[in-house]
Write a structure and sequence with these properties.
With 479 residues, this protein is mainly α. It has helices at 17-42, 46-53, 78-82, 89-93, 95-104, 107-120, 124-133, 143-147, 187-205, 208-217, 219-229, 234-239, 245-261, 264-267, 289-296, 300-306, 330-337, 358-365, 369-375, 441-448, 452-458, and strands at residues 278-281, 323-326, 347-351, 389-393, 427-434, 472-478. The termini are far apart.
């Protein structure tokens, strides 16, 4: 008679004891794997990735979706598969990480994080897609939070610039920095360059925490620290204080921000960045973003945010230059660019006088000799004709040039309107702020558009130091 199988039968209906033992071992192994996977899911950043990238209402975790329903993300290469999550238990339980989690989850600092998300909303979808395309850990979307607060014009005290904070001597060969543009502020090119840099450094170290440390203080410095200590563990280097203090704080700070944004409902991250659609257009001539926005009804601030690499808000003479524009305004902008009768760049008109030189004119108007020559075919420094009228692109508003003679020259005529100021945002700590009741480093960081850690460092303070009423702080000013 065949025995019925049921859940209460220890033998599971299998008579052969060795077979039963194999089955039992398989069950135990499966249970152990499931437990480990469950533990990984508990600290998986997928929730935050969905928070910053979903576009359909049904997919939004802050719109009624339970935490358990967040779909698993697919890795794109062995690079990501090797270390899928940076938020390991060891990393999250480290006292430094715990300290920064406590710091960043205070009410005022949560408001700061929400402000940074709003600032980065234009850039976040592109960065997310590039991270996935390169097969990198999705948590890297949070690196600009601590690098620059998503401010394209951010400039560190040592001269690093842009969302990803590139030094001038560390940019790849395909990024330009000249009198017209600084592509460290180009959100597309700087993102691609930063991700390539991170991927390359990961291939060197094989560990993401060491990779992040190298991104902050340099590959050579991390390598030397590893050689001195004969270890391959970032946290060991931290305990031995073999890295610069800034780097020791940098990785835990990044992990804390990543963890908080990975648990938005728990910590009150309740702002949803809409997907922003844009495209690129080749103007094939120099144009002022301010004039282009006015002619097409495009939001002026958005147009400048999409093209922060333009130091004067004017496209370079390169006919292959790509201008980023809102998709909804692409056709209107194309139509205006095709109309040759539409003036999209302001000029100064200047009549050459005795003693004038192109070098003197270039210094006064803040423009290169080469650019003056491009807009005035046939002109050379050696053969300036007295009485000849030349045009000079108005990169900024300046006083009339009195130059080689005592006579003042008019900067414009009825046919050449007075140049308008072109926004060129640069941050420096030339201002002061007197601390008032209720001020904190975090609230002042929001007010002045700067990372709170940078504000603290510039004033010789720690991030959580209590401000004394009446204290004078150095704060950024916008030039």
């Amino acid at each position: 008679m065949r025995k019925k199988m049921g859940t209460g039968d220890r033998g599971l209906g299998i008579k052969n004891n060795s077979t039963a033992l194999v089955v039992l071992l398989c069950i135990l192994l499966y249970s152990g794997m499931a437990g480990r996977l469950g533990a990984q899911t508990a600290q998986n950043p997928g929730d935050a990735v969905i928070l910053l990238t979903a576009t359909q209402g049904d997919e939004r975790p802050l719109r009624g979706q339970s935490a358990g329903s967040v779909p698993a993300l697919t890795t794109h290469s062995s690079l990501a598969a090797t270390h899928y999550s940076l938020l390991t238990p060891e990393a999250l339980e480290h006292p430094l990480t715990q300290r920064y989690i406590e710091d960043y989850t205070r009410p005022g600092n949560i408001r700061w994080l929400n402000t940074v998300i709003r600032t980065g909303s234009v850039y976040i979808p592109f960065i997310r897609d590039e991270i996935a395309r390169h097969g990198l850990p999705p948590e890297l979307i949070y690196l600009p939070f601590i690098e620059s607060s998503f401010m394209s014009t951010a400039r560190s005290r040592v001269g690093a610039v842009g969302i990803w904070q590139f030094m001038l001597n560390s940019i790849p060969h395909d990024m330009q920095v000249n009198e017209m543009i600084d592509e460290r502020q180009d959100f597309r090119k700087s993102t691609v360059a930063a991700l390539r840099k991170l991927a390359g450094e990961y291939r060197i170290f094989g560990d993401w925490h060491l990779t992040l440390a190298a991104y902050n203080c340099g590959v050579g410095r991390v390598r030397r620290a590893l050689e001195r200590t004969e270890t391959d563990d970032y946290w060991t280097l931290v305990e031995m204080r073999e890295l610069p203090n800034e780097t020791i704080q940098y990785v835990p700070k990044f992990l804390a921000v990543s963890y908080i944004l990975s648990n938005p409902r728990k910590y009150g991250i309740d702002w949803w960045p809409d997907t922003f659609e844009w495209t690129v257009i080749k103007p094939e001539r120099q144009v002022s973003l301010t004039l282009l926005a006015a002619e097409t009804g495009t939001d002026r601030e958005i147009l400048h945010r999409l093209n922060r690499e333009l130091l004067y808000g004017i496209t370079p003479p390169d006919r292959d230059y790509e201008l980023v524009v809102p998709l909804s305004k692409a056709q209107a902008i194309t139509d205006v660019l095709e109309r040759s009768d539409t003036r999209l760049l302001l000029y100064y008109r200047y009549q050459i006088k005795y003693g004038d030189t192109l070098s003197a004119l270039s210094r006064h108007y803040g423009i290169s000799i080469n650019l003056i020559e491009q807009h005035n075919p046939g002109i050379t420094s050696r053969f300036l004709r007295i009485g000849e009228t030349i045009v000079i692109p108005a990169l900024r508003e300046v006083s009339p040039y009195t130059g080689g003679s005592s006579a003042a020259s008019a900067p414009s005529s009825a046919s050449s309107p007075v140049p308008q100021s072109v926004p060129s945002v640069r941050v420096n700590f030339g201002g002061t702020h007197i601390v008032e009741q209720g001020d904190t480093l975090w609230s002042l960081a929001r007010r002045y558009g700067v990372d709170p850690q940078i504000l603290a460092t510039e004033n010789g303070m720690t991030l959580n130091q209590i401000l004394s009423i009446g204290r004078v702080l150095r704060v950024p000013i916008i030039e």
